[in-house]
Amino acid sequence: MTRIVVFGPGPGFKGGIANFNISLAKAFAMQDDTETHIVSWINQYPFFIPRDFIDDKSQTDLLEKSGVTVHYAMNYNRFYTWQKTYHTIVELNPDFVVFQWSNPIQAFPVGYLIRQLKANTTVRIIADLHFGNRKEYAKTVKRLTNYAIKYADAYVVHSYKTACEVKELFPSTNFDLIEGSDNASNSTNKPILKLYHPIYDMYTPDPGFDVAARKEQLHLRQYVFLFFGFIAKYKGLHHAISAFAELAKTRDDVSLLIVGESSWQAPRNRKRDRLKRLFSRQLRAQFVSRREDELHYRPLEMIDRLGIRDQVAVVNEFVPNEDVHKYFQVSDAIVLFYETATASGVESIAYNFKTPIVATRVGHFPESVKDGVTGYLANPDDLASMTEALLNIIEQPIPSENIEAVSKSMSWENYARSVRKMAESIK
Fold first, then answer.
1. CA 335, CA 242: separation in Å to the nearest integer?
2. What is the Cα gyration radius of the chain?
3. Which of 162, 213, 261, 303 minimizes the number of CB atoms within 10 Å of its CB?
C-alpha cells in the first residue's frame, strides 16, 4: 500500500490552487493500492491580509466517493498548528508528500514543514510549483521561495520557463529535467519533472443548458469573449478591455463578458479592517513592485471611459463551482492577455469546454496555446496584435476537434502517475 499526502488547501477554499490540490488528490486515490490524504490549511495567510479566501457558495462535494481523507490542521497565525501539522503528517507515515507552492507569503509555515520532515523522517518531499516571474521580481520573494522549497527532493513544473527559474533559484544544485513519465532512477541529481496543467474535470458542460436564453439574460451579442477568474493586475484585464474596445469600433456583434472577484474587494467598514489594509500596504512594499501594485487597480472603470458599456457584461463576484459552466458555454473564446503567466487554471477549464484561447506570448502560453490550432497568440503590450487575435476568433474560428485532441493528453490520471513514478525513483 502506497500512502500519499497532498499538502495544500482542501475543500472549502477559493481559487485555482485549491481546485488543483483536490483534483490531484483524487487522481492519486484512483490508483491501485493507494491511500491518499489531504493535509489542509485552516487559514492560509497572515491575519492582516484583507481578503476572504473561504468558498461559502459552492455546494458540490468535490471529494464525494473519492476515498480521500482531509485533515484541516495548518493555521498560518498559530505556530502550534504548524507543529500539529508536522505531527499529523508523521503519524500518517506517507511514502511521499506533495506540497503545492504558489505564494512566497506562505514561506515560513511551508518551509518549517519541509525542513522538519527532511531532518527527522525519510519521507520523500515533492514541491509542485505554481510560480513565475510575477512573483520573482523582488529579492525578498526569492529569499522566501528559496527558504521554503530548498530542501524538497524534487520539483514538478508546468512549463520549461518555470524549470529555468528553479535552476536560477538554486544555481549550485545539479538538476535533471525529466519529461513526462521518464524514469530518473539512474540519476544522482535532483529531478525537475516537466508536466502540464491538467484539464479540470470538475467543471463540465451541461448538455441541457439553454445557451440562447443565458445570452439574452446577460445581454450578450453573437460573439462573446470571456475574461474569467480572480481579477488581478498581472492577468491583464485592462489589456482585454482596451483590445475589445478597438474591436467594437468596427463590429457591433461582439460582447465582452467579465466574470470574477476583484483583488481590491475587501471589507472596509471596521477599524480592524483598516488595520489589515495598513499591514497589507506595508507587505506589498516588500513583495510587489510599483508597476504590479494593485492598490489603485480599477480596470472596470475603463468600460465607461471607453464607451463600451452596452457591449460589456460584468459579474463582479466569486462564482460557485456549480455556475462555472453558465459562462463558458455562452463564450466563443477565453481571453488571457496576461502580463506574466505560469500555468493557468482558467486555460485548463477552457480546454474542458473545448473553448479556444486568446493569450499573450508570455510565460508558458507559447508552449500550451498552439497558435491557429487551439487559439491565437498576441504580442504583449501590443494593442493592435491583441485586437487582431480577437478578430481571428471570428474570421478564422478554431475547430473544437483541435482542442479536444490536445486535451486528451492532459489528464489528471497521467499527471498523478508521472509524479508517483518520479517520487518512487528518488533514493
1. 12
2. 21
3. 213
For residue 175, report the phi and psi dihedrals to the nearest 5 degrees. Answer: -115, 155
Decide if 350 is inside a domain: yes
Residue with cell 485533515: 71
91 and 231 together in one domain: no
Does the pTM of the predicted model rise above 0.85? yes
96-125 per-residue burial string, b: 16 or more CB within 10 A, e: under 16: bbbbbbbbbbbbbbbbbbbbbbbeeeebbb
Residue 203 located in a structural domain: no
- Distance separating the N- and C-terminal Cα atoms of the chain: 18
Where in the sequence is the domain holding 96, given as residue range(s)? 2-198+411-425
| Same-domain status, 257 and 298 | yes
Per-residue cell: 317: 463576484
Q: Which three cell numbers stand for residue 264?
A: 481590491
Whether the per-residue pLDDT at 177 is higher than 50: the answer is yes
pLDDT at 49: 78
Q: Is residue 205 part of a domain?
A: no
Amino acid at 40: S
Instruction: Calculate the alpha carbon distances from 57 to 61, 73, 205, 325 in Å.
Output: 12, 22, 20, 15
Residue 75 and residue 24 share a domain: yes
**CA gap 209, 359 in Å, rounded:** 27
Same structural domain for residues 10 and 141? yes
Reported confidence tier of residue 279, pLDDT bands at 50, 70, 90: low
User: Is the pLDDT score of 270 beyond 50?
Assistant: no
In a domain, 134, yes or no: yes
Distance CA 376, CA 355 (A): 12
Is 120 in the same domain as 28?
yes
CATH number of the domain residue 398 falls in: 3.40.50.2000
Q: Are 163 and 132 in contact (CB under 8 A)?
A: no
Positive or negative CA dihedral for 377, 178, 124, 161? negative
Cell for 412? 489528471
**Do residue 175 and residue 270 come from a single domain?**
no
Angle between helical axes of 139-149 and 160-169 (0-180°, round to 10): 90
